[in-house]
Amino acid sequence: MSKSGFWHDVKKYRALLLMLAPAVLFFLLFAYVPMAGIVLAFKQYNYSDGIFASPWNGLNNFRFFFESGDAWRVTRNTALYNLAFILVNNLLQIVAAILLFEVAGKWFRKITQSILFLPYFISWVVVGAIAYNMFNYNVGTINVALEWLGFAKIDIYNTASYWPFILVAVTAWKALGYGTIMYLAAITSIDTEMYEAAEIDGANIFQRIFKITIPNLMPTLIILVLLAIGNIFRGDFGMFYNMIGNNSMLFSATDVIDTFVFRSLTTNNEIGMSAAAGFYQSILGFATILLANYAVRKYDKDRALF
Amino acid sequence: MKGSRKLASMMLVLVLALTMILSACGSKNDNAGTGSTAAPGENAGSTDKELKLKMVMLGGKPIDYDQVFGEINAKLKEKANATLDVEFLDWSDWATKYPLKFAAQENLDLIYAANWANYNDQATKGGFLELTEDMLKQHLPKTFEVMPQAAWDQAKVNGKIYMVPQNNDETIDKVVLIRQDLLEKYNLEPVTSPETFATYLKTIAANEPGVTAYGARPGDGWKWHEMDDMLLEQNNNWTVADLSVPLAFKTDDPNGELFTVYETPEFLELLKYYKDLADNGVWTKNVLSEKSDVWQDMLAGKVGARSHNIGTLGLNMVEGNKAGKFKFDVADITPDRYKLNALSTQNGMAVSATSKNVERSLMVIDLLQSDKELHDLMMYGIEGKHYIAVGDDKYKQGEAAPNYTGFSNWGFNSKLNRVDDSIPASAIAITDAWKDKVYHFPLETFVFDNSNVKNEVSNVGNVMLRYAIPLEYGLIDDLEKGRDELVKQLKAAGIDKIKEEMQKQINAALGK
Amino acid sequence: MASPTATKGKFKFSDKTLLSIIGYIIMTLLAIVCIVPFILIISSSFTDEMAITLNGYQIIPTVFSTEAYSVLFKYPKDMIAAYGVTIGVTAIGTVLGLFLTAMTAYVLSRRDFKWRNQFSFFFFFTTLFNGGLVPWYLMMNALEMKDNYLALVLPLLLNVFYIIVMKSFMSSIPDAITESAKIDGATDFGIFIKLILPLSKPALATIGLFLALGYWNDWYNALLFIGKSEMMPLQYYLYRMLANMDGLRKAMMASGMAVNFAMPTESLKMAMTIVATGPIFLVYPFIQRYFVKGLTIGAVKG
């Protein structure tokens, strides 16, 4: 590729490049410049020297994480939770979007769609409070009901094994409206001519859904999954912290990297140590997304992220 | 793929280039910082030039800020030709913003400092200006005169002072708030010991449906049982050298020999005491996840007892008794043990490393700590409005008291502090009784510097939360097995290394 | 000829009905799961604090009280100002952000653009790596963002997630449309404005909604950069009210100081949810129409 070729291309695409310029500038300024702060992960930071002049620290900032004996457990938990979220959320959202689109009543569609969005607006603090109100042993709604029905009470807040299910369900519930909209938009973007053609060919509605709607949702699904996979090693701190908090009886099943790091650093608030944990998550996420993107590229070049 | 690899390397170059730009801005700030520390004496000694000092406080801006600080500034202008411009970091987000103030090398003069706000850490990282004895003597004469040497010693980080600590002999001992009406209803012995307290709690748990006998909120992230202060430390006359690790020495041990509290027979005994309470339903099964405010619950009649420092419980008692529904009282369950003074660094004021007005800043701290008029204004607001003076050392809450409260003016705590006149006699009696029992010992001023064992301290903290808390709240059935597991995890987390380091520091402090 | 069509028609009618029935059942169940907690919140926000402490949240208020709302609206001026800031920031940010997102996404969606993958990677990379809070804060400070409305608008203006989703929507627009316009002599920017934007209505509505929600719910940037109370957006104003109590409680414990305070925190939490959600919910039906109707690309093409 010669230099003149490159400049030739620049000229050829100058309009497109110009259209891209604001976004490129934006990410340079607000993402790439501060990204240099990653060096903090390898520094013994102090205020007077600043980020770059502070002395190097080798891998010392990573020690608290890897020497805790919990690194593997919390990393695994984070990835497994995110996988479950990706799977359950997308499946539920696709089903909801298709049903919303196909169900006859216009008002029913509109109202249900609005209602599905309600949980999105409830902050995790409030969700946590409501959950406690429902699940606690003494006066929780569930236990009061069980007692009334003559069953034994269940001690949800001291039994770790219930929590993966609860957390997956709560996350799905909260994300339902938001994700459904995205799939609904994808469905409405399908050219109605395609449906009409299918109808003329005599396809029934289920065939139509499986032959036209779902294949047309695949690009959106793939993109959303790929985007989620890049962050598979980042836990939703707000969710885990407000649902579980410091209840150590549940940690074995609910501790993710973010909550673990938060707890570890409450006593000594070392910026370098949190940078180190973040860097670890980034590297893992980067490796995973390269693999996933590679796989998608092999299957269909146009569907890949990059 | 190939394209993106090339792009990645291009981006690396870009990041490096931008890094240099950023570091250029960074170093500009540095110069400003060092410049000010090197030449603090632009206006040395003289107060000719009127100065506006920037002060950072924790907590919400009080509603009557303009009014009160208007008066403070009028007085300060007269006495030091300086005025204060205060920035408040709300309780909701101070933990994020406070370190950022230093990181950004913002131009500040005065800043609230406290051990629980990572004073040591900020000082080590160069956030505060070192205060030499000469500076203190020269610019802080009144305060220096009355401040005990022990208070200064506690404020030392690596041998250097970075804050003007509070100067009031507050005891740190915890007491309990109980329901006097229930005590009378069940005809129980007065609560004066761990045993009588247990009887009180168990009686409530057994007979008062809907009332949780003891309110604790371990969910706040406290790494100790909320009764540990009383039953582990006070009751055994131990001193836990640093609350972030479970290491203690006997308060009267001249050698300050450290031991791991979890390995002691006393701890196992205490576990049995706790387990007995838990099995009797003294606290709820889901105590680790409870979030509601204990005092609100107690006021509503849902909780039968709580423990806290005497100041807070005294105020609770006033409020509760005023509501009239129940009768509250304060009780000391370890009355015969040593009483210890709070660390002076629990509250204090520091001068920012970026300050260009060091002398004047110190003068202002001196005035606000040691000038009666200014101290009263800072601590209690405007007389007749926010408080009503009762003699020289007491006060009553004024009508507008809620409009001037809730921020860290505690940084100026001093011997001039007034006592709340409404605090009930029983609480006063307890504090009075303590006065003679305050125990002074060489290691009183010992502050642990954890910078060599940060990783281990993090891990030990995690172990305490994960293994000690459920054990102490009686959620693990086999106590000895649970204790063994805790000790095992603690060893794996590096407690021995911390112990060695801390012992070294203790020995050095004792001059051995 | 007539009878097969009839049977076919009947058959089609029944499978549609079947799907509708399944749809009604499942969607009604989901809707109940989503609305019950919200009813609980509304009701609790109107319940006396003491009653909540004693009985927990109830579907029907046991002791009716509007105290939580009077606490929230104790300083009505501040509250109205906060609404004003949020509405302004949301409106400006959404419009600007949506335009930039669409323009960027369009370029990336052009199959004939040689560097589309490289640029996609350039954007995507920023979602994986970041320098953390301190460098970001220093950068924003260097740009003089303190007590500046731009600090509320700029950080959320572009989001890689939205760009990529938008790009994937635009990729489904047939290339033929762009090509035929090009032959007619249209510029790239002209094609984007005149052809692509109208064809992307559902995607624009979706991303616009997400951007708006992002702005509406943001409090973190305000936490970092806004100190003046009259510049605070709604969510930060509310967040502070609640978190202040919690923070003070912990500080009291740590500092050994005694402070007396009482606030209806439980009902307040709930009232805040209502106050913060209400307005968005009033606007929602207007955006909704873009999601419920199919799009006919042919119509635009022709």
Describe the structure.
The complex is a heterotrimer of chains A (306), B (512) and C (302). Chain A is mainly α and 306 residues long. Chain A has one domain (73-303): MetI-like fold (Orthogonal Bundle). Chain A has helices at residues 3-12, 14-35, 50-53, 60-66, 71-102, 106-117, 124-135, 141-148, 163-188, 192-200, 205-230, 237-243, 251-254, 257-264, 271-299. Chain A is flat, with a radius of gyration of 24 Å. Chain B has 512 residues and is an alpha+beta fold. Chain B folds into two domains: 40-169 and 343-417, D-Maltodextrin-Binding Protein, domain 2, CATH 3.40.190; 174-338 and 440-509, D-Maltodextrin-Binding Protein, domain 2. In chain B, strand 4 (156-157) and strand 5 form a beta hairpin. By secondary structure, chain C is an all-alpha fold. Chain C folds into two domains: 2-45; 68-301, MetI-like fold. In chain C, helix 11 (201-217) runs antiparallel to helix 14. Mean pLDDT of chain C is 85; it is low at 1-12 and 298-302. Classes of the chains: A mainly alpha (306), B alpha+beta (512), C mainly alpha (302). At the A-B interface, helix 2, helix 3, helix 4, helix 7 and helix 14 of A face helix 1, helix 3, helix 4 and helix 17 of B.
List key phrases describing it.
heterotrimer; A: 306 residues; mainly alpha; MetI-like fold; 71% helix; C: 302 residues; 2 domains; 15 helices; globular; disordered N terminus; disordered C terminus; transmembrane helix (chain C)
Domain module tally of chain B = 2
CATH structural architecture of the largest domain in chain B: 3-Layer(aba) Sandwich
Basic shape of chain B: globular
Shape of chain A: flat
Instruction: Identify the CATH homologous superfamily of the largest domain in chain B.
Output: Periplasmic binding protein-like II
Which percent bin holds the helix content of chain A?
over 70%
Can you tell me the CATH architecture of chain A?
Orthogonal Bundle
Total E-strand runs of chain B: 16
How many domain units of chain A?
Answer: 1
Gap between N and C termini of chain B, in Å?
64 Å
The low-confidence runs of chain B, each spanning 5 or more residues with pLDDT under 50, are 22-44
Q: How many alpha or pi helices of chain A? A: 15
| Helical coverage of chain B, percent range | 40-55%
Topology, number of strands of chain A: 0
Which value, in Å, is the CA radius of gyration of chain B? Answer: 25 Å
> How many helical elements of chain B?
19
Signal peptide (chain B): 1-24
Protein name (chain B): Sugar ABC transporter substrate-binding protein
Organism (chain B): Paenibacillus oryzae
Keywords (chain B): Signal
